[in-house]
Amino acid sequence: MGLSASSERRILWSRSCMLVSCCAILCAAGLAGQGVGGPGTASGPTAHTGQGAIEGTVVNEATREVVRGAQIVVGSEAGVPPTLTDANGHFAFRNLAPGTYFLVAQHPEFPLITTGLAASHPLTVTLMPDEQQRGLVIPLAPGGSITGRILNEDGKPVSGCSAQALQHAPGQSGGALYGAHSGTSDGRGEYRIPGLAKGRYYVAVQCAGAIPVARHAAPPAAPPAIQRGADREAPKQKYAMEFYPDSPEFAAAARLMVEAGANVGGIDFHLRPTSTVTIRGRLTGDPEALVRNLHVMLEPRDAALTSLLHYPATVDARTGVFHIESVPAGAYTLVATAHDPGHSYQAKELVDIGPGSVAPAPMELPMIPGSVFSGSVEVEGQTAPENLRIALIPLDAENAGPSPDAKVEKDGTFSISGILPGRWRLEVGSANGYLKSLSVGGQEVSAFAFMVVPGAGGEMRIVMGTKMAQLEGSVEGIRPEDAGGAWLVLAPEDANIVAVGSLRNASADRAGRFHMSGLAPGRYRLYALTSAAAWTALRQNPRVLQVIAPRGKSVDLAAGGRATVQVNVMPVEELTQALQEIE
Questions:
Q1: pLDDT in tens, 239-269
Q2: Do residues 163 and 185 make contact, with C-beta atoms less than 8 angstroms apart?
Q3: Thinking of the domain 469-582, which architecture would CATH place it in?
Q4: Could you tell me the fold of the domain covering 144-274?
Q5: 271-288 in b/e burial notation, b at 16+ Cβ within 10 A?
Q6: Which terminal CB of the chain, N or C, has fewer other CB atoms within 10 Å?
Q7: For all residues of the chain together, what is the average pLDDT?
Q8: Confidence band of 6 (pLDDT split at 50, 70, 90)
Q9: Whole-number Cα distances in Å, 346 to 10, 332, 334, 339, 547
Q10: How is domain 371-465 classified at the architecture level of CATH?
């Protein structure tokens, strides 16, 4: 149970890469393959293309002390190698050509802030020919921590429990919690969660293993779990996951503010044992499902907990018989899936376990094969390109696995199989243009979120449009202190499209002018933000668009058309208030 290793690696990778992604947005040149130069000064032949220079110091944001050994990574078209700060926290890049450079400072003791308006972003420096920019300061926020004790119902310490600092991230199926940092309680029940970037966190505790309950001990207030059959199952108890302050429900959890370099102490837990049951059953239906990478999992129905709680089943692949031990009270979905290329199977069952209730009767789950769709891809004004592939991306967590895909033949036809019941998104690769329409079984649906019901199948028709639109205009209200100018964000008014991350962005020049091309026709809202940090915060939580919609400029883009608009900058204070409102 707890955050799976694969989930944790995926979350850590996506969050740690966010700053580099921002560099990629700001600068087309990649940073891959660059080595680390000597302390203090960039070296290498690619840096010697002019007489410009950038010099500065990296400091501790909390103490203002210099930070030695910080790596400075530069994004630019010139391909400048990174460097390290010296003993005085100083860095220098010399022999630079004119242009725009994006500087990122990194150090192991200073975790990157990856969420909200406080998220770390590159320092933007624009050099004129032979210009020398010195005295730059890059602050790094030191990591904070959370400490406390984990005690049982008698006030005695509980060792070996995992305390996790959690943050909330919006998702396709609702917001989810993820935990990149944790600490384990020692013999005194004390734990410490270090290395936290400045931000707000929930804290949850999970303890592995059952609590032994003697047969002669007095039973709990509610009936213990029993096994169906001749032999009575020994009652079992465990400490279920709890959120601070002492609540099994995420809705009642408190959110803690951790400042840079500070410790939030006294976050104590007082655990109470709860009875558990064993879930038993058998998989039926197509026996082929039992030999195709079979997984049976009990998952919480609360989408916020799906990355934290997993109860995997032990399955006999010969008979399909499974069991899941030590399951506490809660509302769950039992999901069985089997995948391999071209074949998918699924079974679902809702499972509700009340406090102290007996084990549910053994259940049978029929494994249903995924649907098969045949169809065609039409591209307006031309034939379908060669080597075109389509893929269906699952929007429901229980359908996670290899995405069904298919090659489009020269005549534009295809057949795609293994589509399980649930919500899906269509992707068409290597095609110039945009998804104009999609029909499934003769019904027009959104390509960005459509439902496949059990037993579905039939015809799928995809039409690609090629007449892209353009948008240009100007931004009003850019203040002199907004050195980075303004960032434009174009958001579709269709909430389903926004949910899959199809926000487009561009930057305005110093005169406030901007231009966007390659846009799909449709209805949009255009927003002007004051910084890349504001753009990142909006991209991380697109639900905020519902709050700030009145501040956006409505834009209608016709196929092959060009629109010109004027938009006012949104003050950062308004975006901050909107983010707090939805949180």
A1: 999 999 999 888 899 999 999 899 999 999 9
A2: yes
A3: Sandwich (2.60)
A4: Immunoglobulin-like (2.60.40)
A5: bebbbbbbbbbebebeee
A6: C
A7: 82
A8: very low
A9: 24, 16, 11, 9, 38
A10: Sandwich (2.60)
How much of the chain, in percent, has pLDDT values that exceed 90? 46
Contacts with 495 (C-beta within 8 Å, 6 or more apart), sequence order: none
pLDDT at residue 287, as a whole number: 83
pLDDT of residue 28: 38
Return contacts of 264-268, CB within 8 angstroms, 24+ apart.
264/144, 264/145, 264/146, 264/147, 265/146, 265/147, 265/148, 266/147, 266/148, 267/146, 267/147, 267/148, 267/203, 268/148, 268/149, 268/150, 268/151
Burial class (CB in 10 A: 0-12, 13-18, 19+), 148: buried
pLDDT band at 306 (very low <50, low <70, confident <90, very high): confident
Contacts of 573 (CB under 8 A, 6+ apart): none
* Residue with more model confidence, 229 or 186: 186
Q: Phi and psi at residue 115, in whole multiples of 5°?
A: -130, 155
Architecture of domain 278-363: Sandwich (2.60)
Residue 225: name the closest of 313, 153, 329 by CA.
329
- The b/e string for 475-498 (b: 16+ C-beta within 10 A; e otherwise) is beebeeeeebbbbbbbbbbeebbb
- CATH code for residues 5-140: 2.60.40.1120
229 pLDDT more than 50:
no
Contact of 436 with 426, CB cutoff 8 Å? no
Is the Cα dihedral 520, 542, 539, 405 positive or negative? negative
> Does this chain's domain 371-465 share its CATH topology with 469-582?
yes
Strands 321-327, 314-315: pairing kind: antiparallel
Query: Greater confidence, 139 or 45?
Result: 139
Q: Which residues contact 538 (CB under 8 A, 6 or more apart)?
A: 489, 503, 527, 529, 544, 545, 575
Please say if the pLDDT value at position 34 is more than 50: no
Answer yes or no: pTM beyond 0.90.
Answer: no
Find where tokens 């692949």 sit.
Answer: 317
